[in-house]
Amino acid sequence: MVKSAKETKKKADAKASPKLKPKASPKVAPKASPKLAPKTSPKEAPKTKKRKQETAEADNEIETKKERNENKKIKKSEGSLGVCAVSDIKEISDASQKALAGKSITTLFEIQQKAFQPCFSGKDVVGRAKTGCGKTLAFVLPVVERIRANKFIKQFRKKAPLCVTIAPTRELARQIFNDFELLGAAGGLVVKCFYGGTPFGSQCEDLRNGVHVLVCTPGRLLDHVRRQSADLSACKTLVLDEADEMLSMGFQEDIEAVMDELPKEGCQKLLFSATLPKWVNAIVEKHLKSPVWIDVAQDPDGNKTSNLITHQCVACPISMRGDCIGDLCKIHAGAFGKTIVFVNTKKDCDELAGNEKLKAIGAGVLHGDIPQQTRDRTMEHFRSGKIRCLVATDVAARGIDVPAVDLVVQTRPPQDLEAYVHRSGRTGRAGRKGTSICFYSRSDEYLLRLIEHKKGIKMRRVGPPQPKDVVGAAADDAVRQLDTVHEASVEAFTAKAKEVIEERGAEAALAAAMAALTGHFRELKGRSMLSAWEGCTALILESERAIETSSKGWYLLRQMLPWEIVEECRGCKRCKDEHRCIFDAPDHLVKKILEVELWRGNKISVAEELPELEEEETDIHEASQRLKETKQRMYERRKGGGKGEKGKGEREGKGRKGGKGKGEGRGKGSSRGRGRG
């Protein structure tokens, strides 16, 4: 009975720990072979030798395959994401190859290579790839080559474009237009881009003259269709880029109306995005015929973003975020890189751009209320590097391809989890590494846990930027700027430099010059590693005994430090190693705290970096339900289902038929003031 109980316990333990199976199997295999060898009979010895040789050869082959795969991964991560040369695809014409070579494009990414043949052959395609992997060219290239190969231009008639591409934002439409114009010009195609905020009459004139490829936003295209200035009855290809964003923005009725105008037969439909939620399947099933699904966004770890992006999160109060972002721009992007800062509202966008540190680095603003000409100019300056920091709403989150964006900052986690994928995807593009940093408060922590769980992203909690990091990055920028100074200018300042060196010393003079060059004239203020508050320093209490809870940390501080000092400390949190806790102390008390004689086995030191903290467990189901309820409240508020609509109006007051009284109600609504019955 005892043996059977042990056996059942072992079996139960084996079933209860499925996570250990993959790790245990490779370790058990080599150990099992020597133990089994003595048990084999001598007659079977030759067979076992052969088997050993075969298994050894097989193991060597597996190892070499693993090495090759690892080498491939290393090469892909180090350099370009290209998987095949442009010249390897015979259907790509010489004119297109020459146009691509002019943009230094000689290889195709995975989504471009896999999508080419289905799109070129006229099939309906649904494509998904991670941000920064070239989805735009994945449909532009085969569409242009298909028009050229099938000679659709001969069937072309005015006001009836051969290809229509719809994008959710004006900036994305402009980007798609640039790619179509690059390849279309080489094949003699007329390409135009229509969107709101631009003159309507000139667009009608363009359609009358003839447009082969039309790129537009949903609302402007529907306006042309309803006014009959555009005819979609001869359209050969419809492309929906970032379809999930268009549907979530409320363009579903517009898209349906546009699709009803397309020919019933012979019109190819292409749908591309970095994220395809399940609810997008409804439009796929209704309008696409036997579509080819191309999904190159799969990741063994479930990461929905590029593996080249480093994800970090910073706990920071709202009032301090502008200053922290300014310092992060200096650390991660420097004087020569680019940063995109995403906010949730237009008001926050304008307010944040007015921060002194962001003004100093020349921040640009981009949101829906800005005139279109200004938006185009801002994006052009950001691409060229005249603007190094762009503060934007989600109009810049989808498909905008700006080279060399080093840093993406989100002022708070978005409630739309897909938006985090697209926002962070503005960096780490085309084989380059990038950093995505998300600020959060205590009330936003559940959103971070949902993003990690749903999108397979592992975020590392870090402290806010420290003065030493800012100065180090500024010093590197100063050295790079010194290298750009012409020799003649150096000679002109040499005499004065010698005088300053004699007066102040070489090191002090050079340090002051570098500080002035990078704009650091004032005294550098410290910032807490834990809470980002200026004037505070994060201290670590370390004990030989385990600190079970944050309350135990507070207890030790109260017992060992004077009460007037403990009263000014705050934010004590337990570290993950169970023997440390971290807390904030005012700068003027740090020296006193470090000089206090503590109990034996305890010590307090200044935190050099933020340790891994003990996080509270998050119930994913409860967090999902909370997010759903928050979205529902926001939807009702936008719809007008709050106090303004229900209100107090249209009530019948007392004495409506006779006598004095309040008539027809009072308050918000369609009624007015007081009345007499």
UniProtKB/TrEMBL annotation:
Limits of the Helicase ATP-binding domain: 116-294
Superkingdom classification of source: Eukaryota
Biased composition (Low complexity): 25-40
Region: Disordered, residue numbers: 1-73, 612-677
Keywords, sorted A to Z: ATP-binding, Helicase, Hydrolase, Nucleotide-binding, RNA-binding
Presence of keyword S-adenosyl-L-methionine: no
Protein EC: 3.6.4.13
GO molecular function annotation: helicase activity
Sequence ranges assigned to domain Helicase C-terminal in this UniProt record: 327-471
Bias (Basic and acidic residues) ranges: 1-16, 62-73, 620-667
Sequence similarity: Belongs to the DEAD box helicase family. DDX21/DDX50 subfamily.
Protein name according to UniProt: RNA helicase
Organism expressing this protein natively: Durusdinium trenchii
Lineage: Eukaryota, Sar, Alveolata, Dinophyceae, Suessiales
